[in-house]
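Notebook B, p. 112. Complex prediction, attempt 2.
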Amino acid sequence: MTTPPLISFQKLSMEFGQQRVLSDINLDIERGQTVVVVGESGCGKTVLLKLMIALLRPTAGSVTFDGKTLANLSDRELTRERLRFGFLFQGAALFDSLTVYDNVAFGLREQRNLSEAQVRDIVRQRLQEVGLPESSESKKPAVLSGGMKKRVGLARALALDPEVMLYDEPTTGLDPIMTDVINELILQVRQRHPVTSIVVTHEMKTVAKVADRVVMLHPLSRLNPGESQILFDGTPAALKQSSDSRVQQFVEGEARERLKEMAGGSVLF
Amino acid sequence: MATAGPSKPGPISALGIVAIHAVTLFGDFGLFCLQTFGWMFSRRPAPGTLLPSFYLVGVRSVPVVAITGMFIGMVMAVQMFNQFNKMGMATRLGSMINITIVRELGPVLAATMLAGRIGSAMAAELATMRVTEQVDALSCLGAHPLHYLVVPRVLACALLIPLLTVVADFMGVMGGAFICTRLYGVEAHFYWAHTEYYVSMWDVIMGMIKAFFFGCSIALISCHRGLNSQPGAEGVGRSATEAFVTSFVAILVLDFFLAIFLLALHDRIILQGAVRTFF
């Protein structure tokens, strides 16, 4: 008997006003997998991630998490389900008015069932896991570097022991060394905690290092009629061997005919 | 082959789009208010959220409200003295200035100042949180943005703006009295006697009731604008401006309807009822 997928998208579409970003997406994510979602900017990767945790409501289709359709849940049920996810936002989204310690402790205190001593132990443990010293606890997000912000964001996301970790471009804007640090942290999180991970990125190094499975999305405006928006779904090794020129173009990071398209003015960013 | 671009909407179509947008906005704001009150009465405010909001709205606003109130009272005295003095009714200035301040100018001007000082700041803060995904982060960590961000701000504005109105009233009354009795030499005894005769406790309470509704509307409008901000610096700036302009219009519209309602309430119930002796 096969186990049902942990997260499932069925005929999912998303529009913002007149602009359609995702169309007819069908995707299943199994428990324990690390799925990396890649694709050009504006193809709907972050939107897909936010639909997974019901921060956005799809205009058509449905998202199912652990057998529950998210659109059918009440506000309180949704809040409970969201606590099973950890989300590392693109800009870390740390609360400006709170210190590093209070940011990491936020979710724990919000549950109101832990003593302050228990909260302190968990916060210190999570900060240690991401390699931040105790001296950083009293700092405000405004004085942290980009890499430190991401690590605090990761510690905050891990504080509630999530079953699913969502990473939205975790290495964007970081130097190559910090990029590798974050990639290593993603791997360590998987080793220490039994999590399912979904990573949105356009860094091929991240794909090579952390992915069990790669899903590549393509902008709707440049799809051929009747074509699926998911250009590729497979292992990182298969991604490199894909015969689709658009996939190869992305993997190798070369503009090729995109420059011609732009010069012809047929496609706008 | 000639291709046809998207056709420009005609005047009727454009009117329809505006109407749909307006109805959607009102409906969305109505739901936002209902949900906020739902959270307010169903769960205690989150720890550590009330005090900062009360401090920001209450304590930090006292100087600006006091100065505004005092100068309004002083300006009214300066403007009215000549007219009343010519008719030999300078001692009546007390009743005119003070009833105007406690019924109308105190609450309206205090609320207007606070819409500018607090409302636009709230909208800008929440809009920044929205565009930097901090609002989404709250949702992911088990806190509902309405419960965590909006409820404390609404409570602070609804409870403290009436108290700030009392400060504005007091300063306006004192400012007017200072100009009339000290600068223009109006007899203080008669100035205050006329005030006591014409200005009742109900007038002060009426101003505070208005201020309560003004406070609710400032906080709800500003938070709604902030949480529905468009992305980017332009979106944040627009939210702050819209919050002030919409709050200001709401204050004036509410003032009109509340004035009619509260005066009718006064005439029908209080003047004919058992509470007459107090008011």
